[in-house]
TrEMBL record:
SMART domains reported for this sequence: TGc (SM00460)
Pfam families in the cross-refs: Transglut_core
Protein's name according to its UniProt entry: Transglutaminase domain-containing protein
InterPro entries, sorted: CAP/Cytokinesis_protein (IPR052557), Papain-like_cys_pep_sf (IPR038765), Transglutaminase-like (IPR002931)
Organism: Sediminicola luteus
């Protein structure tokens, strides 16, 4: 999905927490790293190796990103939807450019490498002195520093859009901004990311009604975030959609976000179905391998009894070994087959995509037919092995 950048430089109150190291020293030392460092972890660890305080470490990462990642204007006209977050950060490092989703995900990845909690927050924006909502949706970061929640927009601080082009020029206006101040220009889709106990609605934001911010609220956003992070991906998205809808669907940005979230749920559901299908196939492969081994030993038994030397000394032991091995492998194969069959109950596709539904239905039908075929083959093989045990016993 394409994300926007600021049209003009903005100025907000930035929280200053820095100690003896000093912001100037950190900024000077953090703009470059050795060329051989290529991953988010490597760069983050290098930037923060001599820093002690969380705000200093976050500042170093933020400075490096804003000075080394440029905005990719091409993605405004060719939006890309991502399903894997790590791919976004890797792409930003490889190309040294991206849209705000790249800035935000890279920041979170680098913070994660040094044990600092950061969140990627999607939403929409407007200039602090403007009434109109910016034409593209956006993404930024929430970060926990010294157990307090702050907000950062590395995309806007890396440069700005002016007269049809991008100016890569450090701004420094959106680093560790207090939630109420940050909200003047940035509105998260999900109110949980306002980091406020009295979050405002989308309707209030569009009308620039911030009166609620002066009132006491009872929304425990910290607890809500903690509960949310414990959920599986689909439940997390579903809960987020519910909160967004409750806050009001007032513009196209919100509608597009809900649509993309619903598509992501569909993606996760189908991937879950494919994973279950592959797991059953894995059990079936183990079953088939064991059954084939049983057939091989069974055939070896037949080969021996059909040869004249089958009457020679020592053959009885080999015949017994072949039958025993055939029986053992068949038993193991049947066990794997039972496991596969027991997992069929969880092989239900819960999405709504017609193509996925048909694909799931067809593949499950084929799987059931294959399992039935294997069970029939097993019965025949088991009967033959039993008959040949009787033959062997009579032969003694």
């Amino acid at each position: 999905m394409t994300k926007a950048l600021s049209f003009l430089p903005l100025f907000l109150s930035v929280v200053q927490l820095f100690g003896q190291t000093g912001i100037e020293s950190i900024d000077s030392a953090s703009q470059k790293v050795p060329k051989e460092l290529n991953t988010a972890d490597e760069i983050a660890l290098y930037l923060t190796k001599d820093l002690k305080k969380e705000d200093e470490k976050v500042r170093a990462i933020y400075i490096w990103i804003t000075h080394n990642i440029k905005y990719d204007m091409a993605q405004i006209s060719t939006p890309i939807t991502y399903t894997e977050e790590t791919n976004i950060a890797e792409e930003a490092l490889k190309n040294r450019k991206g849209v705000c989703e790249h800035y935000a995900q890279l920041f979170t990845s680098m913070c994660s490498a040094i044990g600092i909690t950061s969140y990627v927050i999607p939403g929409y924006t407007r200039q602090t002195d403007g009434a109109k909502i910016d034409p593209l949706n956006h993404a930024w970061n929430g970060v926990v520093v010294n157990n307090k929640y702050y907000l950062i927009d590395a995309t806007w601080d890396a440069g700005y859009f002016n007269k049809g082009g991008y100016v890569h020029e450090f701004q420094g206006d959106f680093f560790l901004v207090e939630p109420k101040e940050f909200l003047k220009a940035h509105m998260p889709f999900d109110p949980i990311w306002q980091f406020l106990n009295n979050p405002i609605t989308h309707t209030a934001y569009v009308s620039k009604d911030f009166s609620r911010l002066g009132q006491r609220g009872n929304f425990a956003f910290r607890d809500s975030i903690a509960r949310m992070t414990a959920l599986d991906s689909i439940s997390r998205i579903e809960k987020s959609i519910a909160r967004i809808q409750k806050a009001g669907v007032t513009n196209v940005h919100i509608r597009e976000e809900i649509s993309q979230m619903e598509n992501l749920i569909e993606y996760y559901r189908y991937n879950h179905w494919v994973s279950r299908f592959n797991a059953i196939n894995g059990e079936l492969k183990l079953a088939v391998d064991e059954i084939n081994s049983a057939v091989s030993y069974h055939n070896a038994f037949f080969k021996m009894i059909n040869k004249k030397q089958g009457e020679s000394q020592g053959t009885d032991g080999e015949l017994k070994t072949n039958l025993s091995n055939a029986s053992d492998h068949l038993t193991k194969g049947k066990a794997f087959l039972r496991v596969a069959e027991s997992q069929l109950g969880s092989l239900e596709y819960l999405g709504s995509n017609k193509e996925h539904l048909q694909n799931a239905k067809t593949n499950k039908k084929n799987l059931l037919a294959y399992i039935a075929q294997l069970k029939e083959s097993n019965l025949k093989l088991e009967a033959s092995i039993t008959k040949n045990w009787e033959y062997y016993q009579k032969r003694l």
